[in-house]
Request: fold
Amino acid sequence: MRMFLLGLAALVIVAIAGISAPWLQFLLSLAIAKGLAALGVAILLRAGLISIGHAMFFAIGAYATAFLTRNGITDFVSLLILSTLIATAAGVVVGAFMVRYRAIFFAMLNLAVSMVLFSLLSKLYNITGGTDGMRVARATFFGIAPGEQTFELIVFLTSLVVVMLVGFAVSAYFRSPLGEALKAVHTNEIRLEYISIPVWGVLLVGYTISAALAGLGGSFAAMIIGHVLPEMAFWTESGHLILVAVLGGIGGVAGPFIGAIFLELVHTFAASFTDAWSMIVGAALLFVIFFLPSGLYGLINKKRGGSAV
Amino acid sequence: MSKPLLKAENLEISFHGVKAADGVNLEINEGEFLAIIGPNGAGKTTLLNLCTGYLKPSAGHVYLDGKQITHLSPRQIAKRGIARAFQIPQLFTDHRVIDNVMLSNAARLNLWQMLSPLDRPRYRDEAMELLRMFNLADHANDLASTLPEGRRKLLDIAVALALKPRLVLLDEPTSGVSAIERFGLMETLMTALRQAKVTALFVEHDMDVVRRYAERVLVWNRGHVLTQGRPEEVFQDQRVIETVVGAV
Ligand SMILES: Nc1ncnc2c1ncn2[C@@H]1O[C@H](COP(=O)(O)OP(=O)(O)OP(=O)(O)O)[C@@H](O)[C@H]1O
Ligand SMILES: [Mg+2]
Reply:
């Protein structure tokens, strides 16, 4: 309950910041989009699995939005839902293959698949626009086409609502037997088998949810930026998602969003006068790893990292 | 009502040329309390690994209720009613003590229930009952990793029983438990098994425990059954005294 109120308070603060300083809206919406994908990565981290390829689902969500828009679907909500479903389907297919692997094999296989996607997106010029990517026309809301500022405001507010819904859903998932079992995969897979809980099923559900979240984030990003690029699937983007997840903390659903907003702010301010950006991020990461093992999120949640939100 | 619940036939397996099971035959009847004794490295744990599908025998079969289970996975065998407690406790160390038991209970849930909260009064009560039985109730909300060695062993057994199995295989239930608590644990265990009508096979090093609780003893040496019978008979046997009792 306390965490719920804190989360709500944080959302309200972000909302006020965005509304009173409209130039922040773009930045915060994008941070939230990445935060959604980082939450997906964090879900797998709970099971002790590091995916260095999750940007592929972010890219799938983004390109799905681009293709759907090009094919005449322009409604904002429909685009979000359909793109997420497409990423979810991709998650089931890729996940069915991935959940048999652990540790470095899991990490590398995800990387490999994401690199295949990256090169397909870059090479299939006629379909994907190659390295130029694809433009994404501004979405409409229930048939109304808003101006740029209104669009940014609506996207920003929607992203906050989505964060809240996703926060509820994912923390409910973490508290369910399936979510608890996901954490148990990390500590004792053998015992899990011996109490007749199918590890592959537990992981496949986790993987699919994480792909869906990354796809949702990607769809948001495509509409916020108005453009999709193959780089969205590049491995450095996957690395960025891990960075966000670890920095923010994987103890609860709020962590990745805190991490994403923090990084996006540091990036914007540090990059504007020096190239100290990498140094600041590096120092922050060192600080978190040594002093805040449960991430920035651990600052507000002093409790043992077991229950979420 | 004495028919074999579990039956192993001519099981064979070897590691690097050393036979850990060399034509093993075993029967355990419904409601029985069977002990397995034998020196270190005799292949006792290996036998449990074979019966639960963790290892596949190079020859031989395992039957539950007359049906082959040799080819099944540990998960499928657990689903059919064989639970196992481990020589070295296998716990979810990042979970609370009570979560360990509740997760085991949750294995019976359907998919929809698998998505609703685990920590609910109904599941909690069920788990607490078991924890109370094993004197773990005070630790219910502690992380499993913080439990002292002896209590981990108890929790490991509680997790196995939470599955409500028909047969439980216990690998040295009293090892790591202090000599004073040993008989208390065995009493608890016997009560729990009788109450739930669970058949049990237990590997044991403490001969006093075996003498007092086992209905039948299998003596194990170098991958095969040396002899078997009632405890009082078996402990008279000169070979048993040499290989097992003397060695412990
Ligand atoms: N997975 C394995 N790989 C290789 N060798 C193994 C494996 N499991 C068991 N062994 C070997 O098989 C033999 C029997 O081991 P096992 O653990 O079954 O003995 P045990 O009777 O349970 O001994 P203890 O009383 O020490 O628990 C030993 O020599 C052991 O080293
Ligand atoms: Mg052993």
Observations:
- Chain A touches chain B at residues 172-173, 175-178, 180-181, 183-184, 186-188, 190-199, 304, 306 (CB under 8 Å).
- Chain A has one domain: 2-304.
